[in-house]
Amino acid sequence: MKRLLKSLHRYLYAFFTALCFFCLYPLLWLFSRKESHYKCLNKVRKANAFVASVLSGIFYKIHYEEKIDWSRTYVVCANHASNLDIFAMSVLMKNNFFFMGKQELLSSVFTRTYFESVDVPVNRESKMSAYKAYKKADERLKRGMSLIIFPEGKIGNEYPPVLHTFKNGTFKLAIENNIPILPVSLQNNWELFWDDGTKYGTRPGISHIYVHKPIETEDLTLKDEENLKNNVFEIVLSKVNYLAYSQELNNSDED
User: Fold this and answer.
1) d(CA 74, CA 144)
2) What DSSP designation does 154 have?
3) Distance (Å, rounded) from C-alpha 93 to C-alpha 159?
4) What CATH class has 2-254?
5) What is the pTM (predicted TM-score) of this model?
6) Beta-sheet pairing, 120-122 with 205-211
7) Residue 92 Cα to chain centre, angstroms
8) Where are the domains of the chain?
9) Residue 126 burial (CB count, 10 A)
């Protein structure tokens, strides 16, 4: 019975996500036409994420280590084990923002509008694509837009999930632009909605989001990139509700 209910909730979630998206699509299309309207596009995106979640019985509670100055630009780094993470991060943000994500999101009806306009798609298998995405993200940051990225670069196959090693490019962007890193721990999204929900279904509940204090980068150089990456990894790891560790660390323990 429990599995049946979780399967039914997944369909309910999909229904409300589609309903909200298509109701708001005229505004999404209008605001995606010009870069000067991207702030409005993000406001509609936040509304879409919040309303679709609430109608599905999913609510968000945000915990702050300290008060965040949302007038600043950030590189926001979060763990990633659920499709719900995108909605959670959209609800969290209070300034203009963009995601960097896998190129496959261009093929989804629900994300194509964003990744053809405000967001930055990247094919990690192509050095040219990765370079172009890096340059585009760099331009967005210089214009005062915050970057949201899941530096693991994927949702892993492990259940319960683990935290995979972070990729480097994000931290280079932050150092080169003297932009603070904002670590975020999505504490329990995987319990509500692991991956796309296909295997274990989904359920209503409260998504807990822990926002750590920003890490300043103005005194750092590219020589500090690796240390910065490892520091952010440990900070995000400290507040997630699963046994999280990098694949490399796990493999080294077994050797």
Assistant:
1) 9
2) S
3) 28
4) alpha beta
5) 0.91
6) unpaired
7) 10
8) 2-254
9) 12
pLDDT tens digits, 156-195: 999 989 999 999 889 999 999 999 999 999 999 999 999 9
Rounded-to-integer distance, Cα 82 and Cα 28, Å = 24
Peptide bond into 180 cis (omega under 30): no
* Greatest Cα-to-Cα distance within the chain, rounded to the nearest angstrom: 56
Mean pLDDT of the chain: 92
Q: What is the distance between the alpha carbons of residues 182 and 147, in angstroms, rounded to a whole number?
A: 10
Total residues found in the chain within this entry: 255
SS3 75: strand
Query: What letters, b where the CB count within 10 A reaches 16 and e where it falls short, cover 156-183?
Result: eeeeebbbbbbbebbbebbbebebbbbb
| N-terminal to C-terminal alpha carbon distance within the chain | 43
Question: Which position has the token pair 């989001």?
Answer: 209
- Which single residue is written with the structure tokens 């694949």? 247
